[in-house]
């Protein structure tokens, strides 16, 4: 089998490899992917450092052309790359193709942003002096990504990093190297100079840790768990390094008595169970007022009966497998914890077998949960959600905000008054009204508050905050 290698200083390299396994069919090896060493990582950092002076001064048209070319190729290959994504991560083929299209759109967007770079010229408060404010690239950026969005998250970090003139050392999650390799190959062929984008696949404890320990990374943009995010933060203080952290969530979805029941059920089912609940923006706390509670639970249970859990590539699959055995164990452990805590298992909770050996788990719904239970406080990151019954809107809002996290927050209501109040008072970076808590646009800011995020927003023009540093120049006329 071919080994998909790391890209360091413009050369494909690496003989050590690990198998990329399909969670829908654990007999299938998606490919063999290089597993980099600390020395490989050091070489990648050195290459990115050496490439920075020239790339940081490259013309905006050159950056535009490369980013546009990459976006076009990803779009042209959306079905093939979507299938690769579905095979390595386990989300359904339509979801995987949708994510691939989004990655293409992100490259298109930042191809445009490269041509819209601008600064400010302002008068000085002193006579005969002019002031210019410009944005400059940061330097070498470390990019560390999780497994759950294997093409979109790398795209929304790599595209702005290049657009604003930075060089990159990119370390994708061990479980999903395939889409990352494909993006890097596309950008490399699109004409990036050697060393501008370096790919080091491999272990977090080796490749990731070497990045954290390096004084040569000017910034690290990280998406992943709270625990790893904290390591990134602590190591970065020592190196005076800029960081952007996107971490976990325990996103609430409030359903009020006046909600349109079918809108609420569609939004809640999508939020909690699509992509196998493995989205940082997934909703795992369904906070429902008492007047609609029983009707909502009955309709949700009926909805869950219609969702097929099966092989990600099979037509008609709504929910693919859990990503791997470890995550499956986390999910089933939390299901046991929920039962012991006294929540009522209203649907699911069982492993299922299908034609191929995979990590198949029924969508699982608890009722009679309280917001103090561990299943309501800790991120599970699987197809497991709980219904929390509340008296009225005021209690719903208080429960929604009573969490250490603050990524996304949703409400189903037909009341303009409550929707408006919720948009203003939800303690989250993103608020959804009559929509799932997951599912966002690529051209506007993405990110959260409290324990979910640290640093400036990702995506849209707000991405410039992280990927550039501001210079103020004074000139005597
Ligand atoms: P993780 O923290 O285990 O891994 C994330 C990345 O960090 C991987 O590439 C991993 O190899 C690397 N890593 C591990 N140890 C490291 C170390 N010592 N030094 C440097 N890097 C290291 O997270 P995961 O399990 O891949 O992803 C799931 C988590 O990601 C969930 O908590 C989820 O909520 C979060 N997530 C958040 C967002 C968001 O935007 N807020 C989006 C997607 C996923």
TrEMBL record:
Keyword Lyase listed: no
Name of the protein in its database record: Aldehyde dehydrogenase (NAD+)
UniProt record similarity statement: Belongs to the aldehyde dehydrogenase family.
Keyword line: Metal-binding, NADP, Oxidation, Oxidoreductase, Potassium
Organism: Rhizobium mongolense
GO molecular function per UniProt: aldehyde dehydrogenase (NAD+) activity; metal ion binding
InterPro entries: Ald_DH/histidinol_DH, Ald_DH_C, Ald_DH_CS_CYS, Ald_DH_CS_GLU, Ald_DH_N, Aldehyde_DH_dom
Pfam families, per database record: Aldedh
E.C. numbers: 1.2.1.3
Keyword Cell membrane annotated: no
Active site feature: 246
EC class name: oxidoreductase
Aldehyde dehydrogenase domain location: 16-472
